[in-house]
Amino acid sequence: MKILVTGGAGFIGSNFILYWMKNHPQDDVINFDALTYAGNLKNLSSIENHSRYRFIQGDITDSDVVTQAIQGVETVVHFAAESHVDRSILGPAIFTKTNILGTQVLLDAALAAGVKRFHHVSTDEVFGALELKSKDKFDEQTPYDPRSPYAASKAASDHLVRAYFHTYGLPVTITNCSNNYGPFQYPEKLISLAITNILEGKKIPVYGDGLYVRDWLYVEDHCRAIDLVLSQAQPGETYCVGGLTEDISNRDVIKLILKDMGKADSMMEPVKDRPGHDRRYAMDWSKIHRELGWKPSHDFETYLKQTIEWYRQEKAWWQPIKSGEYQNYYRAQYAK
Ligand code: NAD
Ligand code: TYD
């Protein structure tokens, strides 16, 4: 089978390609990625010369390039997106263009090429925010209520994907997953930023009171969930995918990192809060467990430690990132 992965040079996309090459040795993988600030071919250096792997640099909003790349493809797994909430607050326009228009261009091309499956990778952030004290969780029936430009653009893309299923019969599936962590995560997200800041001797910026809650999913568990959805789910289906954490606050995540790295809690630095900051996310992944037999297998404490170790060993991966354009972003985002 020929599989086209969009955004395959990003965090989850590159983990997915490495996973797929290992677990599907008969398949050809095309990585279609624009190489924005978040794309990094070093993530894939271990397979770059593999005969079953090909990289195409292209933008998903460019229908000519997309149309060419998709010829002969059976399965599309669509990761390409602008993915960081804080950047969407600083500049929403590119989120609308890439996440909404880009998805629609891909859907058109997939339809014209007659692909057998279009899998769309989405987020729990489309559902909005849960109350801190409640026991509620997001599931496949939760109404959409996106609250950041990033979440709104992902919600719009989900709606388009479903519209192509209902209107044109494109065989789509969607996963809405929680916050991923693991190797190759661009150091702008909480866990990768916290670990690399500590390795640089810098403090960790904590937004507001730090009592915000996320559901943390190890990236390999996410890749396995998508694999199962591709092989077993019916077109038109959506699955919520989450991790093994139970209401852990950002402060507690950071404390675990600091403890493992032998640093004091005073390395946390309260900074101004994110506007419209969603208080709590929690995922009910019982549908994918019930129907496809998936459950997360990587517990948070063990794999957080492994992730810390990865960033410790792979300074050559993240240090060049943090010394480039990143500095401008960091100054703009964390200015007092
Ligand atoms: P990322 O920012 O690390 O990577 C995004 C990739 O997309 C990069 O390689 C980038 O170069 C590429 N890209 C961006 N614009 C493009 C364009 N116009 N054309 C082609 N390629 C383009 O993102 P990630 O964290 O790996 O997230 C991947 C997907 O998973 C996204 O759709 C995101 O919304 C979703 N998701 C992420 C998380 C998370 O915790 N990281 C959680 C839920 C859902
Ligand atoms: P993030 O990794 O940006 O993911 P998302 O906003 O998509 O869930 O942020 C995770 C949580 O950590 C969120 O509540 C915001 C908070 N946060 C900080 O407190 N400090 C930071 O420097 C960052 C990047 C995030």
Summarize this structure as a short list of keywords or feature phrases.
binds nicotinamide-adenine-dinucleotide, 336 residues, binds thymidine-5'-diphosphate, globular, 16% strand, single chain, alpha/beta
Order of strands, widest sheet: 3-2-1-4-5-6-11
CATH topology of the domain at 2-184 and 217-245 and 277-297: Rossmann fold
User: What is the total tally of β strands?
Assistant: 13
Q: Mean of residue pLDDT?
A: 98
CATH class of the domain at 2-184 and 217-245 and 277-297: Alpha Beta
N-to-C order of helices and strands: EHEEHEHHEHEEHEEEHEEHEHHHH
Question: Quick one: biggest sheet?
Answer: 7 strands, parallel
Q: Can you tell me the CATH architecture of the domain at 2-184 and 217-245 and 277-297? A: 3-Layer(aba) Sandwich
**Structural class by helix and strand composition:** alpha/beta
Estimate the helix proportion, in percent. Answer: 40-55%
Describe the structure.
With 336 residues, the protein is an alpha/beta fold. The chain has a domain at 2-184 and 217-245 and 277-297: NAD(P)-binding Rossmann-like Domain (Rossmann fold), CATH 3.40.50. It has 12 helices and 13 strands. The strands form 4 sheets. It has a 7-stranded parallel β-sheet with strand order 3-2-1-4-5-6-11, with helices on both faces. The structure holds nicotinamide-adenine-dinucleotide (NAD) and thymidine-5'-diphosphate. The site of thymidine-5'-diphosphate has 12 residues, from helix 6 and strand 8.
In short:
With 336 residues, this protein is α/β, with parallel strands linked by helices.
